[in-house]
Amino acid sequence: MTGTLRGGARAVMAIALMALLSACAQTGTRSASNGPYYNRPDSTSPPGPPSDPWGPWIRDASRRFDVPELWIREVMRQESGGRANAVSPAGAMGLMQVMPGTYRELQARYNLGPDPYHPYDSIQAGAAYLREMYELYGNPAFLAAYNAGPRRLEEYLWGGRGLPNETRNYVSRIGPRIASAAPNRRAAPEVYAAAEMGFYVPAGPRPVGSGTALALRDQRDTPAPVQVA
User: Fold this and answer.
1) Residue 135 annotated as catalytic
2) Which of 135, 171, 192, 202 is the most exposed place for a label (fewest CB within 10 A)?
3) What backbone phi and psi angles, to 5 degrees, belong to 74?
4) 194: pLDDT confidence band, cut at 50, 70 and 90?
């Protein structure tokens, strides 16, 4: 996974994730034994049986961020093969292959621990980032954002630049395997329309046959009113 959140993507994120952050804050309990970090265990040993070593922590992250377990499992399988000490040539770290800058942002937002290689925190960070990208781009475009970064995806969606072959292959491998699962809280229909993408993305710039995608992009760039309960 590459990329940190910048510019317009960061501004949109603040609005799109307000409700999610509120929900996470309500469920983010702490305990004296875990210290200041969200439910973080001291041990880095797999909490589950050999057949599903990270299962309990995957389920915890799934509940916290309303991300289907299947999404987390398939992304983890593709990213690291379940190896907690995995590191990519680009510097992505841990089970969910989170980049250093992205991890620092997620750490601050979700009260994660300081070690991006800690399996629990890596799963939490990866699940949080999957949810954030899903809220911005829908399914399966969120997979492209997770792999290449939101800025790179937006260059494809609205900037006339093709996606990297690695990202196209990433979406085509994982997308069909997770098609049967969805969060309880779905991304807005406008998100799906603006970032419309199939599992098999052709090489080259995205063809835009109408003004719909551009109009929705302008809508996304306009701050929405904050609703208060």
Assistant:
1) no
2) 202
3) -70, -40
4) confident
